[in-house]
Amino acid sequence: MTQNLDYELLPLLLELAQRGCTYTPRRISKVEIAKTLGVSSWKLNKLLQLAEDEGYLEKQKMGRVFSYQLTPRSLMLLNRVHRTLSMVLKTTPLARLRGVVVPGLGEGAFYMSISKYLEAFKEILGYEPYTGTLNLKLDSESTEARRKLREIRAGYRIEGFSVDGREYCGVTVYKAVITGNGISISGAVLDIDKTKHGDEILEVIAPVKLRDVLKLRDGDRVEVTVLG
Questions:
Q1: Angle at 74 between CA 72 and CA 77, to 5 degrees
Q2: Could you tell me which of 192, 213, 201, 86 has the C-alpha nearest to residue 143?
Q3: Pfam families recorded for this chain (predicted)?
Q4: What percent of the chain has pLDDT over 90?
């Protein structure tokens, strides 16, 4: 199961939980749920079938109608999201950075391809990032805020190292929440010691491909809440 699918099913599972489908089978109004989620009846039926096929939902026939109940797998997902949100909301942000999506130079993908960096990212973040970065061009105020982050020496430090005679520079990692098109994803910001980019270019990583999950195109506005 990919995290992309988790994110796709999460709104449906949350809505079913609010409608009492957590521990007992409940009849639901597909019309009401489709309206709440802002999807068509066809899309809702597809999501329900997908959730059932992937083991997130059980469907039971009661007479001429069906009832639905969330499975333990659903409850694990909802609990994980709850823990993440609790941690994020209790954390005082170090900065809020705003910018627009721009094409990258492939520099971030290079760091994702080096095993020692990747191991460090996994240890710091608790997951293996998608092999690529989202590049944002920050506005002037956010660029200055980014520079001030370096002064307070926050974040998680990966010192430079040498492999087979080749030198690799240090990287500072900041946990963050990335928001675009009304969707928020937990991720991180990379501050690379030696880079071809100026301070106005921010490289962001996450466990998923952010362009796809946040439905982003070049020029779209994104906000990054830096947590530390």
A1: 110
A2: 201
A3: CTP-dep_RFKase (PF01982)
A4: 41
The domain in which residue 167 lies consists of: 91-226
65-70 vs 26-27, strand pairing mode: antiparallel
Q: Over 80: is that where the pLDDT of 103 sits?
A: yes
Question: How many separate domains does the chain show?
Answer: 2
210 shares its domain with 119: yes
Residue 168, classed as helix, strand or coil, is strand
Provide the edge-to-edge strand list for the sheet that holds 65-70.
26-27, 65-70, 57-62
Same domain for 73 and 126, yes or no, is no
Give the position of tokens 């240890």: 123
127 with 167, same domain: the answer is: yes
Is the overall model pTM greater than 0.85, yes or no?
no
Decide: helix, strand or coil at residue 188.
strand
Angstrom distance (rounded) from CA 101 to CA 216: 8
Provide the 8-state DSSP code for 13.
Answer: H
Strand 65-70 relative to strand 201-205, pairing: unpaired
